[in-house]
Structures are given as structure tokens and as C-alpha cells.
Amino acid sequence: MNKFNQTIVSLITPPFNSAVSVIRLSGDDSLSLAQTIFSRKIEKPRYAYYGNLSYQGEEIDQVVLIYYKGPNSFTGEDVVEISLHGSMLIVNQVISLFITLGARLAERGEFSSRAFYHHKIDLVQAEGINSLINSTTLEQKKIALYSLKGDTSKLITPLKEKLGKLLANIEVNIDYPEYLDIEEVTISKVREITLEISKEIKSLAKNASKSSLVMNGIKVCLVGEPNVGKSSLLNALLNQKKALVSSIPGTTRDVVEGSISLNGLPLHLIDTAGIRESKDEIEKMGIELSLKSLEEADLIIFIRDASKSNSIEEQEILDKLKDKKYIEVFNKSDLVSELDEDKIYISALNNDIEKLKNEILKIFDLDLKSIEPSLFSSREIGLLNKALSSLSKANEDSYLYSLDIVSISLKEAYDCLKDLLGESVNVDLEKEIFSHFCVGK
What we know:
Number of helices: 14
Number of strands: 12
Order of helices and strands: EEHEEEHEHHHHHEHEEHEHEEHHHH
CATH topology of the largest domain: Rossmann fold
Number of domains: 3
Low-confidence stretches: 243-254, 274-279
Strand order of the largest sheet: 3-4-5-2-1-6
Helix content: 40-55%
Oligomer: single chain
Shape: flat
Mean pLDDT: 87
């Protein structure tokens, strides 16, 4: 049996005791199953019915029930939502009863998957749902909401349609090769459109990379010699005493982590053991973890003691930072009488770190005050780059080969844009995407 022919049931509110819980049914038998245990006749869609749930003479709960007739529902199928008292005892009793009557428990993301299957949402919107649920900042919520509403998909649809028309023109030329003048016009059009769409996709990819940072956060590694103030800086950024601080070099021997939102930009901070030569086996293990964290970081903050002169060890750390994105900061500015205006000074102990915060925002060039619709997931960015590569190939081929060869790369770019929206996505990818959703969504 096709799983979309089965009626599914799940709790769609958090699974713990609360004032109210909501159970959702979706599928052809939703109405009949609900009617079996509901005390009132359900006739009108989108009408709130107050009544009792009971089975075989046993009253279960007093509830409010709403019926949504497909295709005018979230999933595109018949849907029933039941608001009941938020006891998990009652919730589990009702769900078990529906399963006994013929429904099955919904899988992760299956309601959203059915909405996608019935063309109520595209794949960009589906990913927006999950991102909206997992948002921890207002900026993340705004980007995810654009995707959910369909505003982000509207950036892709015109490009896909433009490529589709171009491919249709090429088909005409292939079918009627005797009209050479038409082929020349089409070749010219290929070059014009591939450059035009490439420009737009480059802009989309650039914005997507920035939005990805906002949605996924930036992994920031604090490195430096022992006792330069890495742990003090972590505590200052987190505004709490997360890491131990002492004047004894080597106090931090393990990786200490914490997360903050810097003006809407999520930072995943990692305080590492001071990098130096050490004979202490435990400290050496901590230093190895530091070097590993340094390799995996999106941004490295190299902390130096402003009150001391350069050391050989610091130069060795700098050598490791070549080809990496890093900020060099001089801590303990309160111990220095003269400051170099070309350097970034902070005093982590005194919570004077605004210059560093500003530099972090500057280095990623993010304007978090004017967020617009944008793609952001690794799947979306990967498909944008793949489409861009195919368009570049089509443009190159237009100077060397006939239209039938050029159309191969154009079709690849066209398919990438379709895949972005989920119009030709394979079942395995669809399953993978929705498996990350919570149960009940």
C-alpha cells in the first residue's frame, strides 16, 4: 500500500503535560475515524466543534475538534485536529485508540512531506518550516519565514522559466536544421541568457552564503599562548563565567564551548588550551584538541598579551593561520600606556570588547538590519553552484559546438533549478530532508 493512502496520526504539540495538547489526523479516513469517537456530527469544514471523545461507553475527554477538507488543508488531504487537555496520559490514550481503529503513527516530517507530495508547498518552503521551528534568533526566524511563505522560491521560478523557454527554442532549431538563420539567432540568445542568468545566480549564491552564516552560525576558535586571556574573553563574550580563569599558565586543558548571538549573528565559541611546548601529557592532549579546533573553525581569534613583546611561539601560531580567516587582538589593554591605532585592543577582564565585536561583524560583511528572502541550506547552495557551472559550460560550448551539444549543459542547469524547488527530486533525497523534521510536523 502506498504510504500516502494511509491515514496518519500524531501529537503536534510538545510531548509533555501542558494546558492544551493538539492531535492531528491526515488522510482519507480522518473524518470517519474522528467521527467514530466524537460525540457530535461533524459536518462543516473549518468549524470548531466542542464535544466529548468516548469509546465503548468510556468517556475520554472534553475537546475542541476542527475538520479541514482536502485539498484545502496543510497536507492537501482531509485533516482533523483535536485540541484536548494536555495530559500525556490522555494524549497517548487517544493516539493509541486511533491506531487501533486503523490509523498509523506519523513518521518524522510526514505531514510536511504530504504537503510537498500534494503540491501545497515546494522543497524550499518545506526546508523553511524546519528552519523556522529551530530558529533561535529573530534574524533566523525572518529568513526561514521568507522561505515558508514562498518569497524565496519566487527568486528561482523566473530563472527556471527563462531557461525552459530557451530549451524549447533549441528544440525547434534541432527539429528544423535547414533554417540556419534561426540557429544563429538562437545561439546569440543562448549567450545572452546564460550570462544574464549566471549573473543572477551568482548574486543568489553570494546572498545564500551570507544567510547560511546567519542560519547555521559561525564557529569561532579562540587561540593563543597560555595566560593571554582566552578564557577571560570567552567569559566576556558569553557574559558569564563559563571557563576557569587563573594566573597559572595551562589552566585550560580541554575545549570549553559556548554560543551567543552577536547582533543576530550566532557565534559558536571555542576556548582552547594555550598553544606551547609542554611535557605534561594532559596539557599536550588539550593542545592537540586546540590545533584540531583551529583547523575546523570558520573564524579564529588570535589573542596576544598587549603588555608583552612578540614571542617565537606566537610567530609559530601566526604561521598556522596563513590562508585562514582570523582576527588578531591584543588583550590587557589596561596594562599598556600607548596604543597602536592600527591594532585591535581589548580588555577581556574589564569587559571592554566592543572593538572585537565590531570587527567580527565587519569581517563577514553582514547587514542584519535589512534581511531579504534568500536561500541558505547546503543543498540549495550546492545546486546553485552546480547550475552556475553548467551555464558556464553552455556558454563556452556555444562558440564551439552545435545547439544539440549546447542544450546538454543548459538542461543540466534547468534540472538543478527544478531540483531546488523539489520538482524532480528523488525519493531518497526527499526522505533524507524530511527525516530531520520533528514528529508531528
